[in-house]
Design brief:
The protein is α/β, with parallel strands linked by helices. Helix content is 39%, strand content 15%. Strands 1-2-3-4-5-6-7-8 form an eight-stranded parallel barrel, surrounded by five helices. The two termini are 20 Å apart. Bound molecules: 1,3-dihydroxyacetonephosphate. The site of 1,3-dihydroxyacetonephosphate has 14 residues, from strand 8.
Length: 250
């Protein structure tokens, strides 16, 4: 099955509103020669401005997280209703920084998945192992638990637009990229897990992105792998020329 490439930038806690809009202007120079879905995930503060600046580009705009309640006394939290209200259509859930620094457990993420689905947000669901887990041979078990528990209770039909991002924690922001072979092996394993959990048809169609120190000079080799359908880029998505080269990978 041919899957449409998906190239995503997670801006993390970078960029003011003005800087975000300038970055979008810079990304308009990308040719998008691979006809990829292109997604950017700015901070909540810039979401609406980025939606407006992206008009006519086809860029998908994502929040980097959202809470699972629609509204209420939850100081500092942002609900899926509020995310939708900015004009954003996508949300990243389960990023390893959310899991490790802000206490997002599988159980919490499962509720966030439900809330995002309820409001029609497309979810980019992140999974990945730490170095210690990889070195002790637990990679597949860790990822399987993240998928089974995080997506528990939802079927293939509800999750039909889901995108998975495999981000090995040891490769995020470290300059250490998984080799294309490591990415391919893990993506293949993830696809097999999803076939078991949600059916073969779902698994054949779901897009699985690789994330972790993706840059202009390693994206081509990573994207060449059969089960890699896209990339989720951190640092290099903040610089228009670099991200444009990633978008227009060979
Ligand atoms: P880097 O590309 O900076 O390693 O970040 C990856 C990431 O966490 C994207 O979500």
């Amino acid at each position: 099955m041919s899957r449409k490439p998906f190239i995503a930038g997670n801006w993390k806690m970078h960029n003011t509103v003005e800087e975000s809009v300038n970055l979008i202007e810079g990304l308009k120079a990308a040719k998008n020669k691979n006809n990829a879905d292109i997604m950017v995930a700015p901070s909540f503060t810039s979401l609406n401005a980025v939606v407006k600046a992206s008009a006519g580009t086809g860029f998908k705009v994502a929040a980097q997280d959202c809470y699972y309640e629609d509204k209420g006394a939850f100081t500092s939290q942002v609900s899926p209703v509020q995310v939708k209200g900015t004009g954003a259509t996508h949300v990243i859930l389960g990023h390893s920084e959310r899991r490790s620094l802000f206490g997002d457990t599988d159980e919490i993420l499962n509720k966030k998945v439900g809330a995002a689905l309820n409001h029609g947000l497309v979810i980019v669901f992140c999974v990945g192992e730490t170095l210690e887990q990889r070195e002790s041979g637990k990679t597949e078990k860790v990822i399987k638990d993240q998928l089974v528990n995080g997506l528990k209770g939802f079927g293939a039909e509800q999750l039909k637009d889901l995108v998975i991002a495999y981000e090995p924690v040891w490769a995020i922001g470290t300059g250490k990229t998984a080799t294309p072979e490591q990415a391919q092996d893990t993506h293949k394993a993830i696809r097999a897990m999803l076939a078991e959990q949600l059916g073969k048809e779902f698994a054949a169609g779901v897009r699985i992105l690789y994330g972790g120190s993706v840059k202009a000079d390693n994206v081509d080799a990573i994207m060449a792998k059969e089960d890699v359908d896209g990339v989720l880029v951190g640092g290099q998505s903040l610089i228009a020329e670099k991200f444009n080269r990633i978008i227009d990978y060979n």
